[in-house]
Amino acid sequence: MQYFKHMTGMRNDVKIKRLIAKHGLQGYGLYNLLLETIAENITTEKPIPELNETCEDIAMFYNGNTAQINEIMAYMLNQGLFEIDEITGRILCKKIYKFLEQSQTRSPEIRRLIDN
User: Which of the four, 20, 47, 70, 101, has the lowest number of CB atoms within 10 Å?
Assistant: First the structure.
């Protein structure tokens, strides 16, 4: 996906407010970075909205602190902002389909996931 809809009031969601209260703009920035990364990786061949990178990868790519990223990620999982795939152990964000439009893809599989 080249883009996804972003709610202009995202910062007003109670879970996001909690994230910002606990981890500041670093938490909010990490959340949005992960959403962008997940959306960017959705393809016809791979329609599952999962994160391929580990916390260590993210820390390395963006000059971050692995322990801090792990802590923020654990908090986001606890708040239900992301889930863990029980089979692969990867981070998932199924709600991202709410922010995708069918006109963005020709894939019947992705269109079905967006509908559901």
Answer: 101
Angstrom CA distances, 11 to 31, 32, 33, 82, 115, stand at 11, 11, 14, 16, 25
Return the ∠ at Cα 4 (arms to 60 and 35), rounded to 5°: 30
Residue with tokens 């902002």: 81
Structural tokens at position 64: 């971050």
* pLDDT, tens digit, 9 for 90 and up, residues 31-52: 999 988 988 887 777 777 899 9
Structure tokens at 93: 């964000």
- Residue 55 CB-density burial (10 A; 0-12 exposed, 13-18 middle, 19+ buried): buried
